[in-house]
Predict the 3D structure of the following.
Amino acid sequence: MFKHILIPTDGSTRSEDAARQGIRLAALTGARVTSFHAIPRFHTSDVMMSLLSANQGEYEKAAKDYAITYTRFVSRTADAAGVACDVEYSTTDDPAAAIIETARKRHCDLIVMASHGRHGVEGLLLGSETQKVLTHSHIPVLVYR
């Protein structure tokens, strides 16, 4: 069955629920998991470059702290279930591509992630990282709703 499951997390309640279910599946199949968080890049405006660049270091530290917090939830939940867990995060403008690349690089054979349930015009306009992963991944994706 599955040997290595990637569990991307954004810290949301739905993401935590998906992580719990992914870990449960890992426990049942004897798989290990990797928790992953994509940190959005800091972008500055040409108009406000001097003002915003002073805050870039603060942003990067805070974003890394959030990544650690989000992935720590997954690693603690995995530990409680007796499932081996690695943690990874990266800074990116394209979370879906980072998820797929991490799964490939880590030799994962399944990605378990949440759907945030956007429907209609909101879903069409905003898109979905989950939808992008489903569309572009060559690795199976299990979406938890």
